[in-house]
Write a structure and sequence with these properties.
Layout lengths: L5 E6 L5 H9 L17 E7 L2 E7 L10 H16 L2 E7 L6 H11 L4 E7 L4 H7 L10 E3 L8 H9 L13 H4 L1 E7 L5 H9 L17 E7 L2 E7 L12 H16 L2 E7 L6 H12 L3 E7 L12
Parallel strand pairs: 1-3, 1-4, 4-5, 5-6, 7-9, 7-10, 10-11
Antiparallel strand pairs: 2-3, 8-9
Length: about 300
């Protein structure tokens, strides 16, 4: 069966990309919070609409001119999603109207030669409907007005988008989650979970930096090894409760714990330089208590001195 068409949701921070992603996915898969930059990595979900299958990608907020390293890497992640996509949903904020950043992003997207659907989100009333008219200054033929939070306008948008997609040849409508052995990669912050995902996938699928807390959503990746399908889940680092200071980080830890609940195997990654810590033991205990098969992996092995007693 050929690969499914790919649809990427792209736009500035906090325009509602993850809210739309979750609405279409039918579950709270991406973190949604009123803070720019909540989504950082690409987030994937297989979807079916009116008998047509596609893969949906949620991307981090696109900041065209930001120079901070994390925003540079988020742009790189979004660019990879754009390259992979057959169709782009360019999300705009009807409450804010057209911004200079929207204009820059539009110019970049048009240069890719992709099918672009312009989507004005947060249209919850007549006032915002009128504001959405401002986006026609970009020169497109149509702007789809929706409220991702309330589900308004989604039927019309998806019907238009899926007109470009082929019907499913395979009537087996089980999701990817049902067909794959699910492996959650868990551990403390900054032990190398995203680096491991990138190594296995052979691409920069997740943002990896020396800064703890880089990963926020649980990021999925499918691989096939010796004829078996696996779903790898990169999760946010799990800190001690008294060290979780940000609301956003709390959401990230909750997502990581949900991934442990849903997985078949928990791969617990430990930092060789730190040794096995109390927090490592607690994370392993979380998986054990939930009846999950556990694999202990020690990363950064090359950074420690070894002798004949090193284990």
């Amino acid at each position: 069966m050929p690969a499914k068409p790919v649809i990427a949701i792209v736009g500035r921070p906090n325009v509602g990309k993850s809210t739309l992603f979750n609405r279409l996915a039918g579950k709270r898969k991406a973190i949604v919070i009123d803070e720019p930059g909540a989504t950082r990595d690409r987030n994937y979900m297989d979807c079916i609409w009116n008998g047509k299958a596609f893969t949906l990608i949620d991307t981090g907020g696109f900041e065209p001119t930001a120079r901070e390293e994390i925003f540079v890497q988020m742009r790189e992640q979004t660019n990879l999603a754009i390259e992979e996509a057959d169709i782009i949903l360019f999300m705009l904020d009807a409450k804010e109207g057209l911004t200079p950043s929207d204009t820059v992003i539009d110019r970049l997207l048009r240069g890719q030669g992709k099918n672009i659907f312009y989507v004005a989100n947060k249209v919850d009333g007549e006032k915002n409907e009128n504001l959405a008219a401002d986006f026609y200054r970009l020169g497109m033929e149509r702007v789809f007005t929706i409220s991702a939070r309330h589900g308004l306008g989604l039927n019309e948008l998806l019907s238009a988008v899926t007109d470009y997609l082929p019907f499913m040849q395979d009537q087996d409508k089980r999701t990817t989650d049902d067909k794959h052995i699910k492996i959650a990669i868990v551990g403390k912050p900054n032990v190398g979970k995203s680096s491991l995902i990138n190594l296995i996938s052979g691409s920069k699928r997740a943002i990896a930096t020396p800064t703890p807390g880089t990963t926020r959503d649980a990021v999925d990746m499918t691989i096939k090894v010796r004829g078996k399908n696996y779903l790898l889940i990169d999760t946010a680092g799990i800190r001690k409760k008294n060290k979780i200071s940000l609301i956003l980080e709390k959401y990230s830890v909750i997502q990581a714990l949900k991934s442990i609940n849903l997985c078949d195997i928990a791969l617990i990654l430990i930092d060789a330089e730190d040794g096995i810590t109390e927090q490592d033991a607690k994370i392993a205990g979380l998986a054990y208590e939930r009846g999950k098969a556990c694999i202990i992996a020690v990363n950064k092995w090359d950074k420690i001195k070894k002798d004949n007693t090193t284990v």
